[in-house]
Amino acid sequence: SQKIEQNSEALNIQEGKTATLTCNYTNYSPAYLQWYRQDPGRGPVFLLLIRENEKEKRKERLKVTFDTTLKQSLFHITASQPADSATYLCALRPNSGYALNFGKGTSLLVTP
Amino acid sequence: GAGVSQSPSNKVTEKGKDVELRCDPISGHTALYWYRQSLGQGLEFLIYFQGNSAPDKSGLPSDRFSAERTGGSVSTLTIQRTQQEDSAVYLCASSLVRTLNTGELFFGEGSRLTVL
């Protein structure tokens, strides 16, 4: 079956450090992968999309890598700030259909 | 409106009652999705609408769940004979369908359903 796995344990880091979150997938052949941010009580907000032929994508302090051989995406936040504290979700389209399937997300806490 | 609008934001109902949840997508977005998020869980896909095409209902958990999208805009998710396990946040999202189908999803704030 198709699976998207993200670290279920919360990631606690100190302000200014780089946060790295992992998304592993099984039995997908994705053309692209998306990352979203979700704050408590809010809907997810789109952050970045990376295509299968792109190894790396950057947007301000965010960097995403996509390794289709390892079936893994890494999401980095450099110079992290307390305002970056949230749950981060990765999402893939299944091999058929139009649904976007989400991982359960990893909670990030950045402390001053 | 500027974003996806959902109503009600909170709904408390008794087991066995029917509920309707409404979603008003971003104007011009042809794709509309419903997801369910239970406490501490990920987003569970329910149903997808795209233009006038037949909806993808593959995620609906039982025949107590149904959804409509009238006029290609507003959508209503109906849960009949609610059960306690239906308690969750129901999220609606809309999207432009771009080339290679890579449109990002714009989510509403969700409708929190509590079944007593």
| Rg of chain A, Å, rounded | 14 Å
Q: Gap between N and C termini of chain B, in Å? A: 33 Å
Average of pLDDT of chain A: 93
Class per helix and strand makeup of chain B:
mainly beta
Distance between the termini of chain A: 41 Å
Roughly how much helix do the residues of chain A carry, as a percent range?
under 10%
The major sheet of chain A is characterized as: 6 strands, mixed
Report the C-alpha radius of gyration of chain B, rounded.
14 Å
Question: Got a strand count of chain B?
Answer: 10
Instruction: Please provide the ordered H/E string of secondary-structure elements of chain A.
Output: EEEEEEEEEEE
Helical residues, percent of chain B = under 10%
Main sheet of chain B, how many strands, which sense, barrel?
6 strands, mixed
Average pLDDT rating of chain B: 91
Number of helices of chain A: 0
What general outline of chain B do the C-alpha atoms trace? globular
Strand content of chain A: over 45%
Helices and strands of chain B, in order, run as EEEEEEEEEE
3D architecture notes:
- The complex is a heterodimer of chains A (112) and B (116).
- Chain A has 112 residues and is mainly β.
- Chain A contains no helices and 11 strands.
- In chain A, strands 2, 4, 5, 9, 10 and 11 form a 6-stranded mixed β-sheet that branches. In chain A, strands 1-3-8-7-6 form a 5-stranded antiparallel β-sheet, with no helix packed on it.
- Chain A is globular and about 45 Å long.
- The N and C termini of chain A lie far apart (41 Å).
- The mean pLDDT of chain A is 93.
- Chain B has 116 residues and is mainly β.
- Chain B has no helices and 10 strands.
- In chain B, a hairpin with a 5-residue loop joins strand 4 and strand 5.
- Chain B is globular and about 40 Å long.
- Chain A binds chain B through residues 31-32, 34, 36, 41-46, 49, 51, 89, 91, 93, 97-105, and chain B through 4, 31, 33, 35, 41-43, 45, 48, 50, 56, 58-59, 91, 93, 100-102, 104-110.
